[in-house]
Protein backbone atom coordinates (compact mmCIF):
# COMPACT_ATOMS: atom_id res chain seq x y z
CA UNK A 1 0.00 0.00 0.00
CA UNK A 2 1.45 3.33 -1.08
CA UNK A 3 2.21 6.04 1.42
CA UNK A 4 -0.50 8.69 1.76
CA UNK A 5 0.47 12.02 0.27
CA UNK A 6 1.00 14.79 2.81
CA UNK A 7 -1.20 17.87 2.77
CA UNK A 8 0.09 21.44 2.80
CA UNK A 9 2.56 22.04 5.64
CA UNK A 10 5.13 24.52 6.94
CA UNK A 11 8.74 23.48 6.79
CA UNK A 12 12.07 25.17 7.46
CA UNK A 13 14.40 24.49 4.57
CA UNK A 14 17.90 25.90 4.05
CA UNK A 15 17.38 28.42 6.81
CA UNK A 16 14.07 29.81 5.46
CA UNK A 17 10.40 29.00 6.03
CA UNK A 18 8.44 27.47 3.14
CA UNK A 19 4.91 26.18 2.54
CA UNK A 20 4.97 22.84 0.73
CA UNK A 21 1.68 21.97 -1.00
CA UNK A 22 0.34 19.65 -3.70
CA UNK A 23 -0.78 21.27 -6.97
CA UNK A 24 -3.69 19.30 -8.45
CA UNK A 25 -3.93 21.65 -11.42
CA UNK A 26 -1.13 19.71 -13.11
CA UNK A 27 -1.36 16.34 -14.77
CA UNK A 28 -0.18 14.41 -12.80
CA UNK A 29 -0.30 16.50 -9.56
CA UNK A 30 3.11 17.75 -8.39
CA UNK A 31 4.44 19.03 -5.08
CA UNK A 32 5.46 22.70 -5.01
CA UNK A 33 6.87 25.12 -2.47
CA UNK A 34 6.50 28.85 -1.89
CA UNK A 35 8.65 31.07 0.29
CA UNK A 36 6.95 32.65 3.27
CA UNK A 37 9.32 35.58 3.00
CA UNK A 38 8.20 36.23 -0.59
CA UNK A 39 4.61 36.55 0.72
CA UNK A 40 5.63 38.86 3.60
CA UNK A 41 4.78 36.16 6.14
CA UNK A 42 7.54 36.91 8.64
CA UNK A 43 5.86 36.14 11.93
CA UNK A 44 4.48 32.80 13.16
CA UNK A 45 0.90 34.13 12.94
CA UNK A 46 1.41 35.29 9.34
CA UNK A 47 2.98 31.95 8.38
CA UNK A 48 0.01 30.04 9.82
CA UNK A 49 -2.40 32.27 7.90
CA UNK A 50 -0.45 31.58 4.68
CA UNK A 51 -0.54 27.86 5.40
CA UNK A 52 -4.32 27.98 5.95
CA UNK A 53 -4.70 29.68 2.57
CA UNK A 54 -2.75 26.95 0.74
CA UNK A 55 -4.58 24.21 2.65
CA UNK A 56 -7.86 25.63 1.38
CA UNK A 57 -6.49 25.92 -2.18
CA UNK A 58 -5.25 22.35 -2.06
CA UNK A 59 -8.61 20.98 -0.90
CA UNK A 60 -10.53 22.97 -3.53
CA UNK A 61 -8.27 21.94 -6.41
CA UNK A 62 -8.36 18.29 -5.31
CA UNK A 63 -12.17 18.37 -5.14
CA UNK A 64 -12.33 19.95 -8.59
CA UNK A 65 -10.04 17.25 -9.97
CA UNK A 66 -12.16 14.46 -8.48
CA UNK A 67 -15.34 16.04 -9.87
CA UNK A 68 -13.86 15.98 -13.38
CA UNK A 69 -12.51 12.47 -13.51
CA UNK A 70 -9.63 12.79 -11.10
CA UNK A 71 -7.33 14.85 -13.34
CA UNK A 72 -6.80 18.44 -14.40
CA UNK A 73 -4.43 19.82 -17.02
CA UNK A 74 -4.11 23.50 -16.21
CA UNK A 75 -0.38 23.33 -17.01
CA UNK A 76 -0.97 22.55 -20.71
CA UNK A 77 0.64 25.07 -23.14
CA UNK A 78 -2.15 27.13 -24.66
CA UNK A 79 -0.51 27.45 -28.09
CA UNK A 80 -0.39 23.64 -28.39
CA UNK A 81 -4.11 23.41 -27.64
CA UNK A 82 -4.95 26.06 -30.25
CA UNK A 83 -2.79 24.24 -32.81
CA UNK A 84 -4.72 21.05 -32.01
CA UNK A 85 -7.97 22.96 -32.64
CA UNK A 86 -6.74 24.15 -36.05
CA UNK A 87 -5.76 20.58 -36.90
CA UNK A 88 -9.28 19.44 -35.99
CA UNK A 89 -10.71 22.13 -38.30
CA UNK A 90 -8.61 20.76 -41.18
CA UNK A 91 -9.88 17.25 -40.48
CA UNK A 92 -13.49 18.44 -40.49
CA UNK A 93 -12.94 20.14 -43.85
CA UNK A 94 -11.64 16.84 -45.26
CA UNK A 95 -14.74 15.11 -43.88
CA UNK A 96 -17.01 17.57 -45.68
CA UNK A 97 -15.10 16.99 -48.93
CA UNK A 98 -15.54 13.21 -48.68
CA UNK A 99 -19.33 13.39 -48.26
CA UNK A 100 -20.83 16.85 -48.82
CA UNK A 101 -24.41 15.53 -48.72
CA UNK A 102 -24.02 14.38 -45.09
CA UNK A 103 -23.93 18.01 -43.90
CA UNK A 104 -21.04 17.16 -41.58
CA UNK A 105 -17.68 18.81 -41.16
CA UNK A 106 -16.81 22.33 -42.30
CA UNK A 107 -16.57 24.09 -45.64
CA UNK A 108 -13.32 25.49 -47.01
CA UNK A 109 -14.75 28.99 -46.60
CA UNK A 110 -15.39 28.35 -42.90
CA UNK A 111 -11.80 27.15 -42.51
CA UNK A 112 -10.54 30.31 -44.22
CA UNK A 113 -12.50 32.53 -41.81
CA UNK A 114 -11.39 30.54 -38.76
CA UNK A 115 -7.72 30.64 -39.73
CA UNK A 116 -7.99 34.33 -40.60
CA UNK A 117 -8.99 35.06 -36.99
CA UNK A 118 -7.24 32.33 -34.96
CA UNK A 119 -3.76 32.34 -36.56
CA UNK A 120 -3.07 36.02 -35.66
CA UNK A 121 -4.24 35.29 -32.11
CA UNK A 122 -1.87 32.30 -31.92
CA UNK A 123 1.02 34.45 -33.21
CA UNK A 124 0.19 37.15 -30.65
CA UNK A 125 0.26 34.60 -27.83
CA UNK A 126 3.60 33.15 -28.93
CA UNK A 127 5.11 36.64 -29.22
CA UNK A 128 3.74 38.35 -26.09
CA UNK A 129 3.09 35.36 -23.81
CA UNK A 130 5.47 32.56 -24.78
CA UNK A 131 4.80 29.33 -22.93
CA UNK A 132 1.48 30.59 -21.50
CA UNK A 133 -0.38 27.73 -19.82
CA UNK A 134 -4.12 27.21 -20.04
CA UNK A 135 -4.53 27.69 -16.29
CA UNK A 136 -2.76 31.07 -16.48
CA UNK A 137 -4.97 32.56 -19.20
CA UNK A 138 -7.04 35.44 -17.79
CA UNK A 139 -9.80 37.63 -19.26
CA UNK A 140 -7.38 40.55 -19.26
CA UNK A 141 -5.21 38.97 -21.99
CA UNK A 142 -8.27 38.30 -24.15
CA UNK A 143 -9.60 41.85 -23.76
CA UNK A 144 -6.16 43.29 -24.43
CA UNK A 145 -5.87 41.33 -27.69
CA UNK A 146 -9.26 42.53 -28.95
CA UNK A 147 -8.44 46.12 -27.96
CA UNK A 148 -5.14 45.95 -29.86
CA UNK A 149 -7.02 44.68 -32.92
CA UNK A 150 -9.47 47.57 -32.58
CA UNK A 151 -6.61 50.10 -32.57
CA UNK A 152 -4.56 48.38 -35.30
CA UNK A 153 -5.05 49.58 -38.92
CA UNK A 154 -5.82 46.91 -41.50
CA UNK A 155 -6.21 46.78 -45.28
CA UNK A 156 -9.46 46.85 -47.21
CA UNK A 157 -8.54 46.64 -50.88
CA UNK A 158 -6.12 49.52 -51.43
CA UNK A 159 -7.15 51.49 -48.34
CA UNK A 160 -6.00 51.54 -44.72
CA UNK A 161 -9.05 51.20 -42.47
CA UNK A 162 -9.87 50.48 -38.84
CA UNK A 163 -11.77 47.35 -37.89
CA UNK A 164 -15.50 47.83 -37.41
CA UNK A 165 -17.42 46.64 -34.30
CA UNK A 166 -18.91 43.84 -36.41
CA UNK A 167 -15.43 42.59 -37.36
CA UNK A 168 -14.34 42.69 -33.71
CA UNK A 169 -17.39 40.60 -32.81
CA UNK A 170 -16.33 38.05 -35.44
CA UNK A 171 -12.87 37.91 -33.80
CA UNK A 172 -14.46 37.40 -30.38
CA UNK A 173 -16.78 34.67 -31.67
CA UNK A 174 -14.02 32.66 -33.34
CA UNK A 175 -11.68 32.85 -30.34
CA UNK A 176 -14.56 31.91 -28.03
CA UNK A 177 -15.33 28.89 -30.22
CA UNK A 178 -11.68 27.78 -30.17
CA UNK A 179 -11.45 28.08 -26.38
CA UNK A 180 -14.79 26.26 -26.04
CA UNK A 181 -13.40 23.37 -28.10
CA UNK A 182 -10.40 23.24 -25.75
CA UNK A 183 -12.69 23.39 -22.69
CA UNK A 184 -14.57 20.30 -23.89
CA UNK A 185 -11.41 18.20 -23.84
CA UNK A 186 -10.60 15.97 -20.89
CA UNK A 187 -8.84 16.41 -18.57
CA UNK A 188 -9.97 20.02 -18.13
CA UNK A 189 -7.66 22.78 -19.33
CA UNK A 190 -9.30 25.91 -17.84
CA UNK A 191 -10.07 26.47 -14.15
CA UNK A 192 -12.94 28.91 -14.91
CA UNK A 193 -14.09 28.97 -18.52
CA UNK A 194 -17.18 31.09 -17.75
CA UNK A 195 -14.87 33.98 -16.86
CA UNK A 196 -13.05 33.71 -20.21
CA UNK A 197 -16.33 33.39 -22.10
CA UNK A 198 -17.63 36.57 -20.48
CA UNK A 199 -14.56 38.49 -21.66
CA UNK A 200 -15.35 37.49 -25.27
CA UNK A 201 -19.06 38.32 -25.16
CA UNK A 202 -20.20 40.14 -28.34
CA UNK A 203 -20.67 43.88 -28.08
CA UNK A 204 -23.81 45.65 -29.19
CA UNK A 205 -23.50 47.04 -32.72
CA UNK A 206 -26.02 49.74 -33.69
CA UNK A 207 -27.75 48.83 -36.92
CA UNK A 208 -26.89 51.16 -39.81
CA UNK A 209 -29.60 53.07 -41.60
CA UNK A 210 -29.79 50.76 -44.61
CA UNK A 211 -31.92 51.53 -47.64
CA UNK A 212 -33.01 49.08 -50.27
CA UNK A 213 -31.88 50.03 -53.80
CA UNK A 214 -34.67 51.37 -55.97
CA UNK A 215 -35.79 49.60 -59.18
CA UNK A 216 -34.03 52.32 -61.19
CA UNK A 217 -30.72 51.61 -59.45
CA UNK A 218 -31.09 47.87 -59.97
CA UNK A 219 -31.89 48.42 -63.65
CA UNK A 220 -28.83 50.65 -64.00
CA UNK A 221 -26.63 47.95 -62.45
CA UNK A 222 -28.02 45.26 -64.76
CA UNK A 223 -27.54 47.44 -67.88
CA UNK A 224 -23.96 48.20 -66.80
CA UNK A 225 -23.23 44.50 -66.25
CA UNK A 226 -24.62 43.58 -69.70
CA UNK A 227 -22.68 46.42 -71.32
CA UNK A 228 -19.43 45.34 -69.68
CA UNK A 229 -19.90 41.71 -70.83
CA UNK A 230 -20.20 42.77 -74.46
CA UNK A 231 -17.17 41.71 -76.59
CA UNK A 232 -17.02 45.25 -78.03
CA UNK A 233 -16.86 46.96 -74.64
CA UNK A 234 -13.79 49.13 -74.07
CA UNK A 235 -12.65 51.20 -71.11
CA UNK A 236 -11.00 54.61 -71.38
CA UNK A 237 -7.36 54.55 -70.22
CA UNK A 238 -5.71 57.85 -69.28
CA UNK A 239 -1.99 57.98 -68.53
CA UNK A 240 1.11 60.17 -68.77
CA UNK A 241 3.96 58.79 -70.87
CA UNK A 242 7.10 60.70 -71.89
CA UNK A 243 5.59 63.80 -70.25
CA UNK A 244 2.57 63.56 -72.54
CA UNK A 245 -0.95 62.68 -71.49
CA UNK A 246 -2.48 59.85 -73.50
CA UNK A 247 -6.07 58.63 -73.72
CA UNK A 248 -7.06 55.43 -75.50
CA UNK A 249 -9.58 52.59 -75.39
CA UNK A 250 -8.70 49.15 -74.07
CA UNK A 251 -10.53 45.92 -73.26
CA UNK A 252 -11.15 45.33 -69.52
CA UNK A 253 -8.19 43.73 -67.80
CA UNK A 254 -10.44 41.53 -65.64
CA UNK A 255 -12.85 39.17 -67.42
CA UNK A 256 -15.47 37.25 -65.44
CA UNK A 257 -15.77 33.49 -65.89
CA UNK A 258 -19.18 33.67 -64.20
CA UNK A 259 -21.57 36.16 -65.79
CA UNK A 260 -22.24 39.13 -63.51
CA UNK A 261 -25.61 39.88 -65.12
CA UNK A 262 -26.89 36.32 -64.71
CA UNK A 263 -25.69 36.06 -61.14
CA UNK A 264 -27.37 39.40 -60.41
CA UNK A 265 -30.71 38.18 -61.80
CA UNK A 266 -30.61 34.92 -59.81
CA UNK A 267 -29.86 36.79 -56.58
CA UNK A 268 -32.35 39.60 -57.13
CA UNK A 269 -35.27 37.44 -58.28
CA UNK A 270 -35.01 34.53 -55.84
CA UNK A 271 -33.62 36.18 -52.68
CA UNK A 272 -31.23 33.25 -52.14
CA UNK A 273 -27.78 33.40 -50.60
CA UNK A 274 -24.68 33.83 -52.74
CA UNK A 275 -23.45 30.28 -52.02
CA UNK A 276 -26.85 28.84 -53.03
CA UNK A 277 -26.86 30.81 -56.30
CA UNK A 278 -23.34 29.72 -57.26
CA UNK A 279 -24.10 26.04 -56.64
CA UNK A 280 -27.59 26.02 -58.20
CA UNK A 281 -27.92 23.17 -60.71
CA UNK A 282 -30.37 22.54 -63.51
CA UNK A 283 -31.78 19.55 -61.67
CA UNK A 284 -33.10 21.99 -59.08
CA UNK A 285 -35.23 23.81 -61.68
CA UNK A 286 -38.68 22.29 -62.12
CA UNK A 287 -39.87 23.66 -65.49
CA UNK A 288 -43.11 21.65 -65.37
CA UNK A 289 -44.43 23.20 -62.16
CA UNK A 290 -42.45 26.43 -62.46
CA UNK A 291 -40.45 26.56 -59.24
CA UNK A 292 -36.83 26.39 -58.05
CA UNK A 293 -35.84 23.84 -55.40
CA UNK A 294 -33.24 25.26 -53.01
CA UNK A 295 -31.19 23.67 -50.23
CA UNK A 296 -29.59 26.40 -48.12
CA UNK A 297 -25.89 25.64 -47.57
CA UNK A 298 -25.89 27.68 -44.36
CA UNK A 299 -28.82 26.01 -42.62
CA UNK A 300 -29.39 22.81 -44.63
CA UNK A 301 -33.11 23.65 -44.98
CA UNK A 302 -34.86 22.66 -48.20
CA UNK A 303 -37.38 25.03 -49.75
CA UNK A 304 -38.73 26.06 -53.14
CA UNK A 305 -39.46 29.34 -54.89
CA UNK A 306 -42.60 29.30 -57.10
CA UNK A 307 -42.03 31.36 -60.23
CA UNK A 308 -45.22 30.46 -62.12
CA UNK A 309 -48.80 29.50 -61.30
CA UNK A 310 -48.80 31.24 -57.90
CA UNK A 311 -49.39 34.81 -56.68
CA UNK A 312 -45.78 34.89 -55.49
CA UNK A 313 -44.66 34.63 -59.11
CA UNK A 314 -45.60 38.29 -59.63
CA UNK A 315 -42.15 39.19 -58.31
CA UNK A 316 -40.47 37.65 -61.38
CA UNK A 317 -43.17 36.84 -63.96
CA UNK A 318 -40.72 36.25 -66.83
CA UNK A 319 -37.79 34.72 -64.96
CA UNK A 320 -38.91 31.16 -65.76
CA UNK A 321 -38.87 31.99 -69.49
CA UNK A 322 -35.36 33.36 -69.09
CA UNK A 323 -34.25 30.17 -67.33
CA UNK A 324 -35.55 28.11 -70.25
CA UNK A 325 -33.41 30.11 -72.69
CA UNK A 326 -30.39 29.72 -70.41
CA UNK A 327 -31.03 25.97 -70.32
CA UNK A 328 -30.92 25.77 -74.13
CA UNK A 329 -27.58 27.63 -74.14
CA UNK A 330 -26.10 25.55 -71.28
CA UNK A 331 -25.83 22.28 -73.17
CA UNK A 332 -24.28 19.64 -70.87
CA UNK A 333 -23.33 22.12 -68.15
CA UNK A 334 -24.83 21.04 -64.80
CA UNK A 335 -24.71 24.46 -63.13
CA UNK A 336 -27.23 27.19 -63.93
CA UNK A 337 -24.54 29.88 -64.00
CA UNK A 338 -21.66 29.61 -66.49
CA UNK A 339 -18.18 28.98 -65.11
CA UNK A 340 -15.88 29.17 -68.15
CA UNK A 341 -12.70 27.19 -67.48
CA UNK A 342 -13.46 26.88 -63.75
CA UNK A 343 -14.84 23.60 -62.34
CA UNK A 344 -17.80 25.48 -60.85
CA UNK A 345 -19.11 29.09 -60.77
CA UNK A 346 -17.28 31.60 -58.58
CA UNK A 347 -18.20 35.09 -57.41
CA UNK A 348 -16.67 37.61 -59.90
CA UNK A 349 -15.64 40.17 -57.29
CA UNK A 350 -13.61 42.47 -59.57
CA UNK A 351 -16.06 42.58 -62.52
CA UNK A 352 -18.97 42.99 -60.10
CA UNK A 353 -17.34 46.08 -58.56
CA UNK A 354 -16.53 47.48 -62.00
CA UNK A 355 -20.14 47.03 -63.11
CA UNK A 356 -21.23 48.83 -59.93
CA UNK A 357 -18.85 51.72 -60.71
CA UNK A 358 -20.01 51.83 -64.33
CA UNK A 359 -23.66 52.09 -63.21
CA UNK A 360 -22.72 55.04 -60.94
CA UNK A 361 -24.98 53.87 -58.11
CA UNK A 362 -24.17 53.20 -54.47
CA UNK A 363 -22.75 49.80 -53.63
CA UNK A 364 -24.98 46.83 -54.47
CA UNK A 365 -23.79 43.48 -53.11
CA UNK A 366 -25.29 39.98 -52.85
CA UNK A 367 -26.46 40.47 -49.27
CA UNK A 368 -28.02 43.83 -50.14
CA UNK A 369 -30.00 42.11 -52.90
CA UNK A 370 -31.17 39.50 -50.40
CA UNK A 371 -32.43 42.18 -48.01
CA UNK A 372 -34.00 44.13 -50.85
CA UNK A 373 -35.89 41.00 -51.91
CA UNK A 374 -37.71 41.11 -48.56
CA UNK A 375 -38.71 44.74 -49.14
CA UNK A 376 -40.07 44.01 -52.62
CA UNK A 377 -42.14 41.11 -51.30
CA UNK A 378 -43.55 43.40 -48.61
CA UNK A 379 -44.47 46.03 -51.19
CA UNK A 380 -46.39 43.36 -53.16
CA UNK A 381 -48.28 42.30 -50.04
CA UNK A 382 -46.89 38.78 -49.89
CA UNK A 383 -47.39 36.96 -46.56
CA UNK A 384 -44.33 37.11 -44.28
CA UNK A 385 -44.42 33.31 -43.82
CA UNK A 386 -44.03 32.82 -47.59
CA UNK A 387 -41.03 35.14 -47.75
CA UNK A 388 -39.45 33.43 -44.74
CA UNK A 389 -39.86 30.07 -46.48
CA UNK A 390 -38.25 31.42 -49.65
CA UNK A 391 -35.22 32.70 -47.79
CA UNK A 392 -34.87 29.53 -45.65
CA UNK A 393 -34.83 31.38 -42.33
CA UNK A 394 -35.15 29.59 -39.01
CA UNK A 395 -38.12 30.34 -36.78
CA UNK A 396 -38.23 31.34 -33.12
CA UNK A 397 -41.14 30.60 -30.82
CA UNK A 398 -43.27 33.61 -29.90
CA UNK A 399 -46.54 33.84 -28.02
CA UNK A 400 -48.69 34.08 -31.14
CA UNK A 401 -46.96 31.35 -33.13
CA UNK A 402 -43.72 30.80 -35.02
CA UNK A 403 -42.21 33.98 -36.45
CA UNK A 404 -38.81 34.09 -38.14
CA UNK A 405 -36.31 36.91 -38.39
CA UNK A 406 -37.30 37.33 -42.02
CA UNK A 407 -40.98 37.69 -41.10
CA UNK A 408 -40.10 40.34 -38.54
CA UNK A 409 -38.09 42.17 -41.21
CA UNK A 410 -41.04 42.04 -43.61
CA UNK A 411 -43.40 43.40 -40.95
CA UNK A 412 -40.97 46.19 -40.12
CA UNK A 413 -40.81 47.25 -43.79
CA UNK A 414 -44.48 46.63 -44.57
CA UNK A 415 -45.50 50.30 -44.68
CA UNK A 416 -42.14 51.65 -45.91
CA UNK A 417 -40.61 49.00 -48.18
CA UNK A 418 -37.93 51.36 -49.48
CA UNK A 419 -36.73 52.53 -46.04
Q: Describe it for me?
A:
This protein has helices spanning 44-67, 78-98, 108-128, 139-151, 165-183, 193-199, 215-228, 260-270, 274-278, 319-330, 349-359, 366-379, 384-390, 405-412, and strands at 9-13, 16-23, 30-35, 153-156, 159-162, 235-241, 244-250, 285-286, 291-295, 302-306, 395-398, 401-404. The termini are far apart. Helices cover 45% and strands 15% of the residues. The strands form 5 sheets. It has a 3-stranded antiparallel sheet, covered by helices on one side. Strands 8-9-10 form a 3-stranded antiparallel sheet, with no helix packed on it. Strands 4-5 form a two-stranded antiparallel ribbon. The longest helix is centred in the N-terminal third of the chain and has 24 residues, at 44-67. It is of the alpha+beta class. The chain is built from 14 helices and 12 strands. Strand 8 (285-286) and strand 9 (291-295) form a beta hairpin. The protein folds into 3 domains: 9-67, no CATH class; 78-199; 215-412, Intergrase catalytic core (hpI Integrase, Chain A, Orthogonal Bundle), CATH 1.10.443.10.
Amino acid sequence: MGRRKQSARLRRWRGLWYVFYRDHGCNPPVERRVSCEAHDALTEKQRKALLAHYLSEEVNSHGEAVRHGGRLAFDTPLDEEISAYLKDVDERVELRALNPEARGGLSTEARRVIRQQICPFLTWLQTNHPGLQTGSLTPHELRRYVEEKAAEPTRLGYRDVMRSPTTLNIIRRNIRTALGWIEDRRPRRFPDFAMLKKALAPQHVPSPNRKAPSPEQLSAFLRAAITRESPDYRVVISRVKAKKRERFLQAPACQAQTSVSRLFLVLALTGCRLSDALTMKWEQIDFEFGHVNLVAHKTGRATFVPLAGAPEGELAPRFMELLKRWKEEAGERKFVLPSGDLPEPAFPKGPWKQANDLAKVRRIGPQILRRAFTSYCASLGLPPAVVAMWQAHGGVSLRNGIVSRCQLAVRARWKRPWA
